[in-house]
Structures are given as C-alpha cells and as structure tokens.
Specification:
- The chain is mainly beta.
- It has a single domain, classed as hypothetical protein yedk fold (Alpha-Beta Complex).
- Helix content is about 10%, strand content about 30%.
- It has 4 helices and 13 strands.
- The strands form 2 sheets. A 5-stranded antiparallel β-sheet has the order 2-1-7-8-13, with no helix packed on it. The protein has a 5-stranded mixed β-barrel with strand order 3-4-10-9-6.
- Strand 7 and strand 8 form a beta hairpin.
- The two termini are about 25 Å apart.
- About 5% of the residues have low confidence.
C-alpha cells in the first residue's frame, strides 16, 4: 500500500519532471503527507461533470476517494489506495477508472517493514535513486452534500505488486508512472483498455532505493527533514 509520502522537491525540479504542466511556485516542502490531507494532483477533464479540471494545472484534492454516490464522506478514510487488478470491478473505483484519472505528485514514500524479534515495524523511505520527483497513478472523484456550495474533489493512489527491491518490505507498492505515460494516463477520451492497464505495473527496481528512517515519521504531525534522514538500525 501507500499510506504516507513526500513532496519536497523545489519548483525547478518539479517543472523539469512535469514540463507540460503548470506547477505552482509557492509549494512548501512536505515530508510526511498523510491520508485525509490535500495532495498535489494533475487531473484530466471529466466528461460527466459540469466543471472542468484544467489538465495543465496542479491542484489540490483530498486524499481518500469519496465516490459521488457515497452517503457519508468518511468512506474516503478507507479508500486511500486502489488495487490495480480490480479497478474495473469495484463500484467505488469503476467510474473513476473510466473517466477520472490523475497524476499525484511525489518524490518518495514510506512503508513499514516487519522486523523479526521487534514488535514495532521499521519505517523505510523509498525513492528514485535520482531523487527526482515522480507521478503516482491515481483516480479522482467529486462528492457534494446538500449543504455544500462547492463539490469536494478527492483522490486515491493505485497500487500494484512490488518490484524485486521492495518485495521484502511490503507486498504492495504504489504505481509510479514513467514520464512518457503521463499524457496517455490523463487522456480524457481514453477508456480503460489493455494499453492503460499495462501502465499499472511495478516500477523498475534498478532505478529505486530504500533505506530505514526513524520512527519520528510515525507521528503524522511531524513534518521536517528528520522524517527522511537515514536511521541506523542497532
């Protein structure tokens, strides 16, 4: 799964990775992004809603997908991730997979590894060896109650089986899209197909690295470089 991630890259680095999109210049570094917070996304336009999301612009959506038909928005607390293998089957994700796909901006994420003889799991930070930012494959939805003036836009991160580097850390990993797949993933006219499904695969283990970090990151309110500082296990 993916339950915490980071976006600490400066505007220049983000602009180099997302060169076809408008990146805000005032993004603050975030070392411990947690579910229910707003996250930076680039979404496609939606053919079945009145409003249109500019596919060239970074916006902020609630992390934890709330389907449009949901009676209670708290359902989003359980929908921070979506399994790539069942997107077309699950009612919560089926419509979004057809029409509402997005890129979720990140430059690393955390996983918690079981350690023999230790009742507490060890947090591990995972990123590209290049330390460049990247896009996680995501889905988004809109939800609105009768007393809301504007709809709430929410998103979820798609996960897949792990690559060889990460399989000993956790049995799932987020889908990291290659840069040349961004436009294809966002194409509003595209319907789920074998071509789109083929994008939802483990990222190359040769381009990634993972190292233990302090349990300082366990507390969601901690948001500083200490979260990603290497930690020596004794």
């Amino acid at each position: 799964m993916c339950g915490r991630f980071t976006l600490t890259s400066d505007t220049e680095a983000l602009s180099q990775t997302f060169f076809n999109f408008e990146v805000p210049v005032n993004l603050s570094p975030r070392y411990n992004i947690s579910p229910t917070q707003d996250v930076a996304v680039i979404a496609n336009t939606s053919p079945d809603t009145v409003e249109s999301v500019d596919a060239k612009q970074v916006e902020f959506f609630h992390w934890g997908l709330i389907p449009s038909w949901a009676k209670d928005p708290k359902i989003g607390n359980r929908m921070i991730n979506a399994r790539s293998e069942t997107l077309s089957e699950k009612p919560s994700f089926r419509n979004a997979y057809k029409h509402k796909r997005c890129l979720i901006l990140a430059d690393g994420y955390y996983e918690w590894q079981k350690i023999p003889g230790d009742r507490l799991k060890q947090p591990v930070y995972i990123r590209l060896k290049s330390q460049k930012p990247f896009a996680l494959a995501g889905l988004w939805e809109t939800w609105q109650s009768q007393d809301m003036d504007e709809p709430l836009r929410s998103c979820t991160i798609i996960t897949c089986p792990p690559n060889a580097l990460l399989e000993e850390i956790h049995h799932r990993m987020p889908v990291i899209l290659p840069q040349d797949a961004y436009e294809e993933w966002l194409a509003a006219e595209a319907q789920p197909s074998s071509a789109l499904q083929s994008l939802l695969v483990p990222y190359s283990d040769e381009e990634m690295e993972a190292y233990p970090v302090s349990r300082f990151v366990n507390r969601p309110t901690n948001n500083s470089p200490e979260c990603i500082a290497p930690f020596e296990i004794t």
